[in-house]
Amino acid sequence: LVVTGSDEHLWKMWALPDGNILMTGEGHTDWISGCCFRPSGTQLVTSSGDSTVRIWELSRRGCILTLRGHGRAVRGCSWHCSGHLLASASRDCTSRIWDVGSERCRQTLRGHKDSVNSIEFLPFSSTVLTSSADKTLSLWDSRTVSRLF
């Protein structure tokens, strides 16, 4: 399976190798910048130019949660390997760590001077890697919001 986002405000799930569309999700009001499966494979997170992050329940074929808090477009998203946290990167120069269970932002990572364009949890750790249009990479401890590098 592959999931893609588009300028049409939709995400699509494709079967490989035949290329059939298995599912389509709509609800964002601007382009979709990122899609990432939850480690369990039951949900999908998407990020969008509409400044939101959405969680989709694949069995229900619909959005179950919209996370708001970024002031500008969200450029990327990533699940923690536990499936309990997710991260988002935004053009508002911040990144956020979201607690899926409480449906709230746990931490806001501040320090980049320009758009944060990507974010990834390092495998099996609380460390987050961000990249920015300010031409820097940063490593963060998502528990303490400490910038490690």
TrEMBL record:
Q: Which domain of life is it from?
A: Eukaryota
Q: Which residues form a coiled coil?
A: none
List the keywords (alphabetical): Repeat, WD repeat
Chain positions of WD repeats: 25-66, 67-108, 109-149
Gene Ontology CC terms, in alphabetical order: axonemal central apparatus
One GO biological process term is:
axoneme assembly
Q: What is this protein called?
A: SPG16 protein
Q: Which organism is it from?
A: Xiphorhynchus elegans
> What gene does this protein come from?
Spag16
